Amino acid sequence: MTGNAETMLAPPDEAGIAAAVSAAHAAREPIAVEGNGSKRGLLRPVQAARTLSTRGLTGITLYRPAELVLSARAGTPIPEIEAALAEKGQHLIAEPPDTRALFGSDRPATLGGIVAANLSGPRRIAWGAMRDHVLGIRFVNGAGEVLRSGGRVLKNVTGLDLCKLLAGSYGTLGVMTEVTLKVLPAPQTQATIGVRVADVAAGVRALAAGLGSPYGVSGAALVPAGASPGGPAETVAFLRIADFAPSVAYRTARLAEDLAPHGEVRIAEEAESRALWAAIRDALPLGPSAEEAVWRVSVRPSAGPGVVEAARAIGGRAFLDWGGGLAWVAGPARAEAHDAIAAAAAASGGTCTLFRAPESLRLAVAVLPEEAPPLAAIARRVKAALDPAGILNPGRMRAGF
Amino acid sequence: MIALPAPKPEILARREEIVAALRALVPGDGVISDATRLKPYETDGLAAYRQVPLAVVLPRTTEQVAAVLRYCHGNGVRVVPRGAGTSLSGGALPMADAVVVGLMRMNRIIDIDLDDRFAVVEAGVTNIGITNAVSGDGFFYAPDPSSQLACMIGGNVMMNSGGAHCLKYGVTANNLLGVKFVTIEGEVIDIGGAHLDAAGYDWLGLITGSEGQLGMVTEVTVRILRGPEGARAMLAAFKGTEIAGAAVDAIIASGIIPVALEFMDKPCIHACEAFAHAGYPLDAEAMLIIEVEGSTEEQDELLARIKAICERFDPISLKVAESAEQSLAIWKGRKGAFGAVGRISPDYLCMDGTIPTSELPFVLKRIGEMSTQYGLAVANVFHAGDGNLHPLIMFDANDPDSFRRAESFGADILRLCVEVGGCLTGEHGVGVEKRDLMNVQFTARELDQQRAIKTAFDPQWLLNPSKVFPLEGDPVPQAAE
Ligand SMILES: Cc1cc2nc3c(=O)[nH]c(=O)nc-3n(C[C@H](O)[C@H](O)[C@H](O)COP(=O)(O)OP(=O)(O)OC[C@H]3O[C@@H](n4cnc5c(N)ncnc54)[C@H](O)[C@@H]3O)c2cc1C
Ligand SMILES: Cc1cc2nc3c(=O)[nH]c(=O)nc-3n(C[C@H](O)[C@H](O)[C@H](O)COP(=O)(O)OP(=O)(O)OC[C@H]3O[C@@H](n4cnc5c(N)ncnc54)[C@H](O)[C@@H]3O)c2cc1C
């Protein structure tokens, strides 16, 4: 398993990564791939004697603010990238969560890790996911070959898009060594409208009204009463507007007016708004205890309340982001609880990821929903096309894969 | 001309049997096999290439598509998927031994959900058809290729098409939620749905832009968005392309993300003005069309900021639309750019490379030099915010030498795009047109990796043959020449 790996390799460059993978390929020896290893509890544990880390590959290699592109080596810590962008008034579009608090880890996520997990935050509802902004990658496939896909320009449809395939593949198809992202100007300011609603379903309706308005809502979350241990006893829908100051003032006022029929409205100005969305981004409202499991469930927004119900039924709790379409759930780390949450996701055609749990549970259940047999067959062939010896993160996403 | 492999004689010999089998699978008038009715399918938007297919099948259901593909797979028959046939890269060009599977009869809107903000449509629904179905409620489908009246969402998915507004709203890939995918083996797989995040591999991302190489798409779930309160354009004309490029940089650096930021060079301005009488300044070397969104006050505020920025670059003319009508007038020339060039020269090749925007002045200078060298006129329109160039190379189709020069000129432009850090195609796809240039952008190993992924989906390489990948590397041997 990753945490107790006997040998840790952290080469200083791409050639070193390629050499390590080549050697493992030749020897048919599995390796666990990681960035900063901030994810010891991620998905399923990998059975591998060696761990290969990209943490030695750091540094921003290209940043052109006027062209809206940034490239960095895969091991570059996310906070370093965010700081460089902030200096030029720009930001990471997908607003990826900082999961250090949630997982009690002290190392920041790396660029490669965030992309490999395709982890996006609140802004995803308006501006797209991490994978939407990966313009190019360099990676080492399972045979140790250094390859590229995409490039460093904003529009590119040349050849198959392996960037998207590798984003969200949790290191099972290749080891990314460098990633190029589209970035955007950060809005000048922001404000948040909080609507006190009667229940979760009413809250999702308020969010739908906001997202269906012409005011460019860039965050839409719902924190039900009792979602946080010791948290507020009210159910509140939050809608963020971020733009130039005059626009924020105008749109917030208009939207607040439109939302008044949904419940009592309060407006949080910039500082409070920023703090609120940082907490939602990082799933802080859940405040799970050390023994609890955490799930991330993606459904159609109107199915969000059903997931909250399911969370309550297992003795857990949940809050919603993405207009209701993303449920963060905390509850007892038991197989029955997992099955209930997975079933609630499946009931609306959505998906569920066991985000954090003790190893015993992660080994006992399907941490991701199974794919239909014809797709699973294609998945095995695609995996073999990129990693012929099956050495990269075996078992990370699915048992025996 | 780009080489096409010789058809498989054993397939040509079985033509009647194949047509009969397809008729059993798609009854009624769903199979076309007589020469006159096959003719309209012989080409796509890259009209210089023509080839009448073995037969055309027009299924009405996913089950029929699956049955046709299963039959073709079982019988070693190649398949060319087709939407509206507007591909500018020859992506939908038939092969003599291939069956064209056209989805234009699958044109139903299946579901619209305004609360959850998605629409499910069949692959043969036109791009504009989606927006038309939701615009009454103030919603729209964001990617807007200029061909949107004709092109179909299935084709958009397979080309990952863009549009004038993708700087803000993204391209097709950024606006998709799911597809119904049919493999060459005839399996029907639902990928994605009405939710945002996939758990597991991002199949949707891999399929988008795969140019019919991996399978067919029969249904598409797209995100629909509420439109802004309004939008308005301005026009800014400059004395030099470098100056216009610097103005673009300054606008982006100011933190404004215009919904559209279009660039035209002098020949293009002249062509469009002659056609549309939009009041474009004829003495300008470069012109920008910049559009912003919001309430009237917000538009005023943003346009004033952009105007102030442009004023720092010694503009020849600055015209801010005062009304929606004036805005339309500004757009009129740009929207008709291809048609306008078509009036000067009946035949033109529309290129589609992308470059880092900082390379624009250099690239335009080189294109000008090449234009002299090849003796062919060129007009440039350009999505300035994202570096996607559309040089329109004018030639005379009745003069084979002129066409040959136009093709070489185009290839040189695309090589230049790659050289300066860009790519061969920003939105039109590789198709047959850029197939042999793939070696310029990718190493042999990189192409082999992509081929291996295609093989994982299409083991016999029956889907959309002779496109995208240079022929010499086909893992499945082609018929002898
Ligand atoms: C389902 C899930 C569960 C999580 N559980 C935890 C947890 O228990 N504890 C915790 O601290 N954080 C957890 N996180 C948070 C998440 O792992 C981190 O925020 C971030 O993704 C880790 O960044 P990292 O650089 O440390 O990468 P890692 O955590 O080291 O790697 C994340 C994944 O990406 C792969 N990867 C990393 N770098 C590369 C690369 N260059 N190329 C290819 N693949 C690469 C790894 O193999 C791994 O599968 C979880 C995230 C998800 C999506
Ligand atoms: C005047 C004009 C302007 C244009 N403007 C733009 C523009 O602004 N932006 C832009 O991006 N493009 C533009 N295009 C190019 C073209 O319209 C797009 O590529 C469009 O997406 C093609 O759609 P289609 O339905 O015509 O597909 P087709 O041309 O029929 O097919 C395109 C490709 O997809 C495959 N295919 C089609 N349907 C399916 C399916 N259901 N399943 C599997 N494979 C399928 C075909 O085999 C082919 O490879 C323009 C074209 C013209 C003629």
Automatic annotation (TrEMBL), chain B:
PROSITE patterns named in the record: FAD_PCMH
Domain FAD-binding PCMH-type residue range list: 49-227
Domain of life assignment: Bacteria
GO terms of molecular function: FAD binding; oxidoreductase activity
Keyword Flavoprotein appears in the UniProt entry: yes
Cofactor: FAD
Pfam families per the UniProt record, alphabetical: FAD-oxidase_C (PF02913), FAD_binding_4 (PF01565)
Keyword Oxidoreductase: yes
Gene3D superfamilies: 3.30.465.10, 3.30.70.2740, Vanillyl-alcohol Oxidase, Chain A, domain 4 (1.10.45.10)
InterPro entries xref list: FAD-bd_oxidored_4_C, FAD-bd_PCMH, FAD-bd_PCMH-like_sf, FAD-bd_PCMH_sub2, FAD-linked_Oxase-like_C, FAD-linked_OxidoTrans_Type4, Oxid_FAD_bind_N, Vanillyl_alc_oxidase_C-sub2
Protein name as annotated: FAD-binding protein
Organism annotation: Neoroseomonas eburnea
